[in-house]
Specification:
The protein is an alpha/beta fold. The chain contains 14 helices and 22 strands. Helix 4 packs antiparallel against helix 5, helix 4 packs antiparallel against helix 8 and helix 6 crosses helix 7. The radius of gyration is 22 Å and the shape is globular. The termini are close together. 48% of the residues are buried. GO terms for molecular function: hydrolase activity; RNA endonuclease activity. It comes from Emticicia agri. This is MBL fold metallo-hydrolase. Keywords: Hydrolase.
């Protein structure tokens, strides 16, 4: 049996791990889009032949884990795609949104390239490819074993990171002996505001673990709502400005809305307009409401009394482009939540471009941003930022709230992996992290008793 790493190898995006079984069956774990600067070639070319992939198993619906599924189908994949029910629901909306954004962005890029007489770029995939991909999905419940082929069994375990997110536990009944492998996907945090905590998984011979926050601890957040309210008050009441929040359309947006809903219910939220400006976030919120079985007991109790955790007076969900553009000329204090979370694409880039030079405004970053992204640049608080090719002076205040992160920090990851007898884990592969972060996490894992810890490079393969 062999495993090769074609994405999220010493970087955070593009999750893609290929297992070749003893029989020669090729099982791909995730098929994510690379995000950030200088990633177009990585998205155009997988590093393997899509036609040779037999089975695809998805950990969760984030685009850096599913965003190249339609391209895989476009390039000849015809196998079964396995996921949880909620992951399929999210892919149903997120992949169409991804196709739309790519078509729109490529048109703009190719217009510029044509003027410079440069070769035009290829479209990764369109809506037809998304439809063809969704037709291949087969959904499975958590903790329900299913066979990928004779002798290869799989099972999903709740990862607590995103609606429907799962760790993937594989059992290979090979000739000499049975082997087991667990892929964490992305691991959520215990006591998430909406989702259940990550659950333990059976003993594994091999583990592929994410390491996004492997070198840091999240700052203790004594009262997350109070922190958010303080930023809202400072921006919208004291400075009479706009609070611009880049947020992933799924989970992060709903967590923000839930916090604001609670503040409004408690009578503490200022009487200002709140806009969720993202067609994807609107659809994702509906999907969240339809999958309440994934919610933790606290939010279910809140819904029982409040009626709806994602709706309150002065909250507006925006889908139409003209409504989004109208926010540019809106002069009153307000909150605008828009995708993407890394501020790399979508309407949020326009909102930042239109508001970044006003010192009365605040840009609030509430999650991980890959180093090449606009969100990461803003975190560094430079004097100027480049958006859509134009330099803007950064006069707006920049705030960061790590308490909204959906990724476990290193202590939480080690606690999560604590369900394992470390002495029985033959190899632990670190993925989905920047190399310096992974090296720091490796040292902590060694102290926790894990022995053979490997940090694969892009395209690197290992015999198991």
């Amino acid at each position: 049996m062999k495993i090769q790493f074609y994405g999220a190898a010493q970087r955070v995006t593009g999750s893609k791990h290929l297992i070749t079984t003893q029989k020669g069956t090729k099982i791909l774990l995730d098929c994510g889009l690379f995000q950030g600067i200088n990633t177009s070639e990585l998205n155009l070319h997988f590093g393997f032949d899509a036609k040779e992939i037999d089975i695809l198993v998805l950990s969760h619906g984030h685009i850096d884990h599913t965003g190249l599924v339609p391209r895989l189908v476009k390039k000849g994949f015809r196998g079964q795609i396995y996921s949880t029910h909620a992951t399929k629901d999210l892919c149903d909306i997120m992949l169409y949104d991804s196709a739309y954004i790519q078509e729109k962005d490529l048109k703009r890029v190719n217009e510029r390239r044509q003027k410079r007489r440069e070769p035009l770029l290829e479209l990764l995939y369109g809506e037809e490819d998304v439809r063809n991909a969704l037709a291949l999905f087969k959904t499975v419940d958590y903790r329900t074993p299913f066979y990928l082929e004779e002798g290869v069994k799989a099972e999903f375990y709740d990862a607590g990171h995103l609606l429907g997110s799962a760790g993937i536990y594989l059992t290979f009944e090979e000739t000499e002996r049975t082997k087991t492998l667990f892929f964490t996907g992305d691991v959520g945090r215990p006591n998430d505001k909406i989702l259940r905590s990550p659950e333990a998984f059976p003993q594994a011979d091999y583990i592929i673990s994410e390491s996004t926050y492997g070198d840091r601890l999240h700052e203790p957040e004594i009262d997350m709502k109070a922190h958010l309210l303080k930023i809202v008050h400072d921006t919208c009441v004291v400075r009479r400005g706009k609070l611009i929040i880049p947020a992933f359309a799924v989970d992060r947006t709903q967590e923000l809305v839930y916090a604001l809903d609670q503040l409004e219910s408690e009578g503490r939220l200022p009487r200002i307009q709140v806009y969720v400006d993202s067609p994807l976030a609107v659809k994702a919120t509906m999907a969240m409401k339809e999958n309440e079985e994934s919610f933790n007991p606290d939010i279910l109790e809140y819904i029982k009394h409040d009626g709806d955790a994602f709706d309150f007076d002065n909250l507006h969900y925006i889908s139409e482009v003209n409504q989004s553009k109208a926010l540019n000329s809106y002069k009153e204090p307000c909150i605008i939540i828009s995708a993407s979370g890394m501020a790399e694409a979508g309407r949020i880039k326009h909102h930042i471009a239109n508001n970044v030079e006003n010192p009365n405004n605040t840009i609030l970053l509430v999650g991980y941003c890959s180093p090449e992204s606009l969100g990461a640049v803003l975190k560094g608080r430079p004097e100027h930022v480049k958006i859509f090719g134009e330099l803007h002076k950064l006069n707006a205040k920049v705030e960061v709230m790590d308490s909204f992160s959906a990724h476990a920090d290193y202590a939480e990851l080690i606690t999560y992996l604590g369900c394992q007898d470390a002495s029985k884990v033959k190899s632990l592969f670190l993925v989905h992290g920047e190399l310096p972060t992974q090296l720091a996490f490796k040292n902590r894992l060694l102290l926790a008793g894990f022995k053979n810890i490997l940090i694969p490079a892009q395209g690197e393969g290992f015999d198991l």
